[in-house]
Structure formats: C-alpha cells, structure tokens
Design a protein that fits this description.
The protein is an alpha+beta fold and 427 residues long. It has 14 helices and twelve strands. The longest helix is centred in the middle third of the chain and has 21 residues, at 263-283. The radius of gyration is 24 Å and the shape is globular. The N and C termini lie far apart (52 Å). Residues 6-191 form the UmuC domain.
Length: 427
C-alpha cells in the first residue's frame, strides 16, 4: 500500500566531511574543526571522537596533546560549509515535492510509496549526494518528524543498515524495544532540562514518554512536549514547512581576535557587518523593516560581563547598507562603556519582506545619498573577486584590521572563489 513517509537526510560529521571533500588526505585521520578565532572544538571526525577529543574544549588546552596523537585541526570555513549545504539542499529538492531545510546539515523531506519504496529512494538519494557533492549522508524514515529523528540515530549507529533506517520496517514489539533503549533526554524536542522535569512522572525513556498521559505532560511542561508524545505515537503534529532555513532573519556576528574598546573601532565593525548582512538580503531578494545590533564583553574575563542589545525600526523596508550602518552606529555607539573590552558584536535583520513587492517611489528625495545601483555593483565585484576586494566606507579598508576574526588553519573556499579552487594532479 502506498503511503507518505517523513525522512530526515543528515550529513555525517558535516564540517569535517566538507573539509575531506577537497582534501582526501584527511580521510581516515582524526580531524577537528574549531570555532571562531580558533577557540574551541565544534566538530569532530569519528577518529577524533575515538581519541576522546571532547566537544567545546578550548583548542589551546589540548593542542600539544592533539598534535602528538596526529589530530588535524582546521579553522571554521563557513563560506565553504554554507555553499556545500546549499548544493546538497538543491540536489535533494529534485527528489521530493516537500522539503524543509532544518539546519545547515539536515533536511526533512517527504517520500511516497511502500516502506521498501521509501528505503530504496533514500538509498538512491544517499548515492546521488555522495556522487555529486561528496558528502556521506544518513537517512532516518518514519511516519513523523520525531520518529524520523530517532530512526536517524539507528542509521548512524548500525553499519548493517547502509545509512538508511526506516522504523516502519520493524515489528511493533521491536519498535517498542528501540524506544525503550533511548533516553528521553535524547528525544527531539525534549532535551536534558525537560527530562529532569519528566523524571518525577516516571518518564525515563522514549517508550515511557509515548505511553504517558499527554495532557499531564503538557501541564508539567508545555504544549510542545505534548506534541512530542503524539508524534511518538505516529500522529503527525509537525507538518513539513516548505521554507528555507534563515528566511525569517539574516544575522552576521563574529568574535574578535583582539578586543575593541573605542566607538571608532565599533563603527568599522558595524560597517563590515551591515554590508555583509545587506548583501545576503539582496541575494535572497529581501528587505528588512527592523534590525537588532549587539556588542558584548567576554563572560570569562575579570570584571562584570556586559552585553548591549539595541533594536531599530525603519520607516520603509531597506537593504541599503549605508542606511543600516548609520542606524547601527547611532543606536549602538552610545551604549559602549569606556574602558570595556568588547569581544563580540553582530547585526541581524528582521521582519524581512519581498523586495519586488516593496519598491517605493522616492518623490521627495529622502532615500539617502547612496547612488542608485551602487550596492548591486559592489555585490557583483565581491562575487567575482571576493568579499574583501571592495566595500563602502570603512568596510573598504584593504588592510587587515586587528579585530578581524583569526583563522590560522582555514582551508581554501574551493567552491566559491576562483583563486582558491582545488588543484588536481594527474599521475
């Protein structure tokens, strides 16, 4: 009998896998990817996990030991990862009528047919993504999103499944045993904090949660957890949303290699960040009605931690980087406290609207002094020669600023920059 199945397609060790696509020498070796400013471990290969390299551990604490163990470290290369993610999502969209991009390395999709049909389709998807993008994928399939996420655990942990696990392929008794083996804190939508609240109700496993009184769970926690109970019972409460992750807001934030302390340095930072955010908005055909900006000190430094957050609303939706920059500086600049060492800042665009439906006629010439088409020209140049090649105002500074994020072990951006393409040597 033909039926509809929910599948989650997940890239295995995504950041590490992206690095390995263009550097095959990393295959089979312990590899870690570091956070901004080469701070902490944010991704590990299976080989690095086997060496007990922990997530979130500061790199400077383990660098000597890691090198002795043969661990290879890479700085985070978000431009490469983002492009690889977009390529995978585009290929995946050809295989399904419904797709929800859930995160940079995960997408929910709908599959049709019998259980065997769905498994065959998933295997074909894995093979196509490996062939065209080079990424190893795992697929979990079930009748709901929550069960598909649990199935994906099996696709990763049991090599005999070939990277695809469909819960519907198991008997009811076997499914019950599978859920009974999973800690409730590992269920999608629960987590460790909620698991502690469920413990007094005698709920310790996914099987316990499925058998629990849904109304009682809602009173104890929230309607979100009540939906999880129904999802575990095979009742679809979270339909696929055909939206691209990130459409509702655009954010650009970074930690600094060297703290900033002055309003002039903040103006430089905001000039760069607002232009990057504006370029992304234009690339997806969006304009913003509101913007949020922040600057923060380190929570680990001596003295009290401060974080300044301001919001700005625009009379008309805009993607003009000069308007965004001036508004950001005017709103956030006065908040800076003299003597503070700020280590992180960012801007995010909100209330996004479609650019095509919000064109306005500037009858009275109040739109600002940026020449028409300047942003588009800057975008074209940046696309051809790299985002560091041109900028408006302070963002046009070619010299590397002291606060620029440090990435001493970054790999080439092999899919987006001509001068960083991978070189193939024939033998």
């Amino acid at each position: 009998m033909s039926e509809r199945h929910v599948a989650i397609v997940d890239a295995n060790d995504f950041y590490v896998s992206c690095e390995r696509v263009f550097d095959p020498s990393l295959v089979g070796r312990p590899v870690v990817v570091l956070s901004n400013n080469d701070g902490c471990v944010v991704a590990r290969s299976a080989e690095a996990k086997a060496l007990e390299i922990d997530m979130a551990v500061p790199w400077h604490r383990i660098a000597d030991r890691a090198r002795m163990l043969g661990v290879v470290a890479r700085s985070s290369n978000y431009e490469l990862y983002g492009d690889m993610s977009a390529r995978a999502a585009e290929i995946l969209s050809r295989r399904t009528a419904s797709q929800e991009v859930y995160s940079i390395d995960e997408s929910f999709i709908a599959l049709e047919g019998t259980v065997d049909d769905a498994i065959a389709q998933a295997q074909a998807i894995r093979a196509e993504l490996r062939r065209l993008v080079g990424l190893p994928m795992s697929v979990g399939i079930a009748s709901t999103k929550t069960l598909a996420k649990l199935a994906n655990r099996g696709s990763k942990s049991n090599p005999a499944l070939g990277g695809v696990c469909h819960l519907g392929a198991y008997s009811a008794a076997r499914q019950e045993a599978i859920l009974a083996s999973i800690d409730v804190g590992d269920v999608w939508g629960i987590g460790r904090r909620t698991a502690r609240r469920l413990a007094p109700l005698g709920i310790g496993t996914a099987a316990d949660l499925r058998a629990a009184d849904a109304t009682l769970v809602r009173r104890r926690c929230s309607v979100v957890q009540e939906r999880v109970v129904h999802e575990l019972r095979g009742i679809d409460c979270l339909p696929l949303e055909d939206v691209q992750e990130g459409r509702d807001q655009i954010q650009h934030s970074r930690s600094f290699a060297v703290p900033i302390t002055t309003a002039a340095e903040l103006a430089e930072v905001l000039s760069v960040y607002t232009q990057r955010a504006a370029a992304r908005a234009r690339a997806q055909g969006s304009m913003a009605r509101a913007m949020r900006c922040f600057a923060a000190t380190s929570p680990f430094a001596a003295g009290s931690h401060v974080s300044h957050v301001v919001s700005v609303a625009f009379p008309e939706a805009t993607d003009d980087p000069l308007v965004l920059h001036r508004a950001a500086v005017a709103a956030l600049g006065p908040q800076l406290e003299p003597g503070r060492r700020y280590v992180r800042a960012g801007v995010s665009l909100h209330e996004l609207v479609d650019r095509a439906s919000h064109a306005t006629l500037d009858v009275f010439g109040t739109a600002g002094d940026e020449r028409p088409g300047t942003s588009a020209v800057v975008d074209d140049i940046a696309e051809r020669f790299g985002e560091q090649s041109v900028g408006l105002g302070l963002a046009g500074l070619r010299a590397r600023r002291a606060w620029t994020m440090r990435r001493d072990m970054v790999s080439p951006r092999a899919t987006t920059h001509w001068d960083e393409l991978a070189v193939v040597h024939a033998r």
